[in-house]
Amino acid sequence: MEIKLASHEHSMQYHCFHETDDILCDKCSKKICGAAYACLSCQLWLHESCAKALEHLPREITHPLHSQHHLILDWSGITNEFICDICLKISSGTNYVCCRCDFELDLVCAFSAHDDQQAMKKKERSSADRDKQIIQHYCHRDPLVLYKHSSKEGNDSNCSWCDKPLTGIFYGCKGCRFFLHEFCTNKIPKTLNHPFHPSHPLRLHFVDSNTNCNACTQLIRQRTASTYSYCCQECNFNLDFDCAKLFPTLKHECHDHYLTYFGLNNFKDKIIKYYLECNTCHELCLDSLYRCVQCDLNLHLKCVPIPPIAEHGYHTCHQLVLENSIKEDDFGEYYCDICEEERDPTHQVYYCKKCTYITHIQCVLNKDKTSAGKVSSSAPESIDSEAFVEKEMEEFGTIDDHLQQTLVRPLIHEHPLKFCEATEKFEHQYCRACRLTLSGPGYICEECPLYIHGYYLHDKCSHLPSEIQHPLHSHHGLNLYTRPPHMVDFIICDECGDISPGFIYLCEECDFKLDVKCAMRAVPKSELSTLKEAERETELFHFSHKHKLLFCNFRDPTYKRQCSFCRLQIFGPTYYCFRCGWVLHESCLKLPQVMQVPIHPQHILALSYARYGFCHACALKLLSAGYSYSCEECYLSFHITCADSLRRALKRDSHMHDLYYFGTEFQRFFAMYSDFIDIFAGYFCSHCGEICSGQAFYRCLECHINFHLECVTLPQTVKSKNHVHHLIFKDSFIEDDLGEYYCDACEKERHPNDHIYYCEECQGLFVTHIECVLLKVNL
């Protein structure tokens, strides 16, 4: 009994699993016990119900509302929430995704009629402001994505500015849990005159990780990791995004200044709150408190004191009782019956139960009853955004600061940048924008820590325009982003294919992306390409991975990744999965699932995940996070690099057993192994006793001994029956720049940096492996 999924290349066989089997379903991530389907070659397991739910879903579709890219079925994220880009609803489970641009559809929208979707899209985005699904808001470092509120349980969140529940259309950063109503995006002031710090205005600014909020005393980055805060740099006074919305409201005879109410919801870290001590009784403040931020004064409500029963002239029929919190209904909006302004339902209030009369504490106790009725506990009013844009543009430029130029440009960087000339100490530093080596004049941020490589910009990169028109995408403008959207580490440039963790230019509507070097190039790169580039697949499925892999070039010098197969450093042509970070060398993509080697002719070796053990060829440990070739019957395992070295055996009179060539790829592997796994690992020549590591050598797997190539006594000139001329021994040979090189004897691929025999008279038109030509030669 078997089932064939439309999204999987192999048929899945019916199995019965026991409770002791530690197997999880690849769709729902729950343990499998009982009947299930399995693909043993791919190590894929599905509950019977999960398999039947996926049976007829195609692996790949083309959708009319996203015709530029294919959409891939993703059924492995049952617990992960996503936003459907047509209906904008938050959902979870099986969906279709674009592996290039983060476009996602739920199953309903993926297969509903095209006309219905167009009507839905037009209805949901009737406003011109909604044409942009991604915005870069000035109060948050990460791009904000357009969402539609869903009533699905567990998705209820509040707007990060007005603290009201999210409804309708809103923008958000799901990774930071930062959301803004669409109508709140233009209400947040960029500068604020706040009573907590009346001497200077506070400006939106990104602070370092060790900065505390002067109001709640908590670490600002701990509360809002990517959200800007209100700061006075002159006085080192800082307010996090939430505390900036608090205001002192209670005037009491116990203190000269107005006091501010702090409830439990004003402290995201409850442990930090418990460190606050009341200045009157010197006990910890374990509940709500009043605080004077200017004086750093804390008071329990009972120590102010706030009387448990009070009277007010606006409600003379009954006394008012102090209550912890009151929600008179479920409408979500709650008001004070004295000042008639909105109140926080989690705060303590004065309450008349008989009349359902509810008031702020300050509205009852403040001596000035007239002004008390006008005191607001809601968010501050917004400042005219257009007026501030003009002010902000005036700040963009250089100013002289004691003969040293300073650049202030918030769009580029949150801190002021100091002018500098690149010297020898910048030798290994790279521009944050274009990712090229620093040279000539530039700017450095003295506030960003050096242990994360600091923050450096070329002078020309510090003045990049915020928007450009580019001939490769002439129908829309491209906007400057200092970090990639969609919470990814880098993007793939649509012009050159390079990965770019630096600045990018992006068309939000088409998701067209250019890195800085391509965006600023006067003439686009020539359309001519090599034969290999023309034939190369830009996206593909691979047997080792369930998601689609995209072609890209890893050339950024600071971005280090290891191949998921061989564990060697990634640099150059690569295939990458944006969904989960799976990455393969282009050469590893061609590795066969099974292979046979002369050292073990009785069984085939299968490519599988390496868990433990040693390589039978080099005697080094298997890499626990990589793959290896293994014989399950004989329990033999080989590193991928070592298995490739075993394809051809060399027989010499100087040794009784076959010898195997360990060349360039093994030396790369060994360098990585000795650096990160075993610094004492080494190989020595059995003939001369000198070290073999760092150069090509031959190894006998039966005797576990090694020989330098010169110690094997390879002839410098040979005569082969496969060619008319004598062949000359050479350490390497690259005949062209096509990127693929073959042995002319066995017609199999060879490594261009390995030792070979070649015909000098034919100018390298005949090149062979050493082993291929020394099988039967005439010296």
- Total DSSP E strands: 52
- Largest sheet at a glance? 5 strands, antiparallel
Rounded Rg: 34 Å
Q: Which residues sit in consecutive blocks of at least 5 with pLDDT less than 50?
A: 122-131, 368-403, 526-531
* Secondary-structure class: mainly beta
Individual helix count: 13
Outline = elongated
Arithmetic mean of pLDDT: 79
Q: Give the helix proportion (percent range).
A: 10-25%
User: Hey, roughly how much beta strand do the residues contain?
Assistant: 25-35%
Strands in their spatial order, largest beta sheet:
26-27-28-29-30
- The rounded distance between the terminal residues' Cα atoms is 61 Å
Organism: Theobroma cacao (Cacao)
Keywords: Metal-binding, Repeat, Zinc, Zinc-finger
Protein name: Cysteine/Histidine-rich C1 domain family protein, putative
GO molecular function: zinc ion binding
Overview of this protein structure:
It is built from 13 helices and 52 strands. With 779 residues, the protein is mainly β. Among the domains are: 2-54, no CATH class; 191-245, Wheat Germ Agglutinin (Isolectin 2), domain 1 (2-Layer Sandwich); 309-365, Wheat Germ Agglutinin (Isolectin 2), domain 1; 533-589, no CATH class; 595-708, no CATH class; 715-779, Wheat Germ Agglutinin (Isolectin 2), domain 1. Strands 26-27-28-29-30 form a five-stranded antiparallel beta sheet, covered by helices on one side. The two termini are 61 Å apart.
